[in-house]
Specification:
With 461 residues, the chain is of the alpha+beta class. It has 14 helices and 16 strands.
Length: 461
């Protein structure tokens, strides 16, 4: 059996599973009806396993001072990783959330490839597919692209499972180009005619880097209703699809982006939850993943992790939704101009070379700077089909680390938005309250819209 080295960055996440936070990326696809199982199996074989060999390899621990390896599984059958389940009546959203919640603290077995797919029937509307993927396979941004590559633009696309033009994933939020813009152009600075300008640019870059390092070292997760010692039980809740046009109307009227509005609504939800739990609301830090792959190139067959994390301080200590939106935009704009993604990626690469114990300690240290991880994923603008069945919406959470307690996913797809929260029940036992608060914040932001915008459907309860 052939073995393959685990990339140092991938090894970080392979070794970071903990009882309080597993390194598992959780995804839910909502579909109009059941999928054709035979066709689905062909798609998984050809577009997942054949395209990306890591899906047919299992991890093998290395000796004391050596990294783990990926070992090929002989005669691998991907259908062993696909289970069919039927929920009991009434098969509503709460039943599906309860089902997903059962697995949020269950490790993926290490004696087989690190992924599982659940085909869930018995829902009152359509069906669902619940996917679990270990972070060591790739980062959440890449794995979202992998899952979208299983889909087609039409229901009658390639029925034999061959690639019928699977959707390309174009990044996460407005931060995706931050690293590219932040990199200093040293070669220009070395030209004699540009020495002075190069020196000035170098000083500015150095000062920016120093500010980023200070931010990473000095940021702390304040003591609020969202902070505490994480336990082993998690919950997941999500909204119904929301009209994306409403969010666009709010953004346009405020001179902000869609991403600004949605992140601002999260800040408002965090503020309202603190007040409800008797806290004086304060700003709460969250981590935001940033893609560092060229978005115009296909994913490499070996996948792997190539992303950075930036710390965003949610402006939850302000008084009104309008103030929170303006401050969110200001903070997001500042991050876009910052070299923070480049610096944090370099740090992640360095941590991967330090060995298991030291690397684990550093990841836990930096994880303690934030309440959790927030992803805002702009998915396909047009409906997609999986094995012939139309996908109505999607969600996906990347894992938290250490004692992080609040994972947030905002996913836009085919003119709609869904927001979902994954929480640690020891600290946040009632995530539906945060979901309701998110809805209320969107409603407040929509109050100033003209009638054509204000009368649009509000966030579903």
């Amino acid at each position: 059996m052939r073995e393959h080295r685990v990339n140092p960055v991938d090894a970080i996440w392979l070794n970071m599973d903990r009882v309080q936070n597993l390194m598992v990326i959780e995804c839910v696809m909502f579909l109009e009806g059941p999928v054709d199982r035979d066709r689905f199996d062909r798609v998984v074989q050809r577009r997942l396993v054949d395209a990306y060999p890591v899906f047919s390899r299992r991890p093998v621990p290395g000796p004391r001072w050596r990294r783990s390896r990926w070992r090929d599984v002989p005669d691998f059958d991907p259908s062993d990783h696909v289970r069919e389940v039927r929920l009991p009546a009434p098969g509503d959203a709460a039943a599906l959330q309860e089902y997903v919640g059962r697995f949020l603290a269950e490790p993926l077995p290490r004696d087989r490839p690190l992924w599982d797919i659940h085909l869930v029937d018995g829902l009152d509307e359509g069906s669902a597919i619940y996917v679990r993927l270990h972070h060591a396979l790739a980062d959440g941004i890449a794995l979202t692209q992998v899952l979208l590559s299983l889909t087609d633009a039409t229901a009658d696309a390639e029925t034999d499972g061959r690639d019928g033009g699977g959707a390309r994933h174009h990044g996460v939020g407005d931060l995706i180009e931050a690293a590219r813009r932040a990199a200093p152009e040293v070669t220009h600075a070395l030209r004699p005619a540009r020495v002075r300008a190069g020196v000035v640019a170098g000083i500015r870059t150095g000062l920016s880097g120093a500010r980023v390092l200070a931010k990473l070292l000095l940021t702390r997760n304040p003591e609020t209703a969202l902070a505490g010692d994480a336990g082993s039980h998690k919950r997941a809740v999500w909204s119904e699809p929301v009209d994306l046009q409403l969010v666009k109307d709010i953004a346009r009227s405020s001179g902000a982006t869609v991403n600004d509005v949605l992140v601002s609504a999260l800040a408002g939800a965090v503020e309202r939850y603190q007040v409800e739990r008797g806290d004086t609301p304060v700003d709460v830090p969250t981590m935001v993943p940033v893609n560092l792959r060229p978005i115009h190139l296909p994913l490499p067959r070996e996948l792997g992790n190539r992303f950075a994390l930036v710390v965003l301080l949610l402006p939850s200590g302000l008084t009104t939704a309008t103030e929170r939106l303006a401050e969110t935009k200001r903070r997001m704009d500042r991050i876009k101009r910052s070299p923070e993604p480049v610096i944090t990626f370099a740090m992640i690469q360095g941590i991967g070379l330090l060995g298991r114990r030291l690397g684990r300690g550093l990841v836990t240290f930096f994880a303690g700077k934030a309440s959790g991880v927030t992803t805002n994923v702009p998915g396909p603008r047009e409906p997609r089909y999986l094995a012939g069945t139309r996908i109505t919406s999607m969600l996906g959470w990347v894992p938290g680390s250490g004692d992080q307690t609040l994972g947030t996913c905002i996913f836009t797809y085919a003119g709609t938005v869904r927001v979902g929260f994954k929480t640690d029940t020891t600290v946040i036992p009632d995530p539906e309250h945060i979901l309701d608060a998110f809805h209320d914040e969107i409603d407040d932001l929509a109050q100033g819209l003209p009638p054509t915008g204000a009368t649009r459907d509000r966030v579903a309860r």
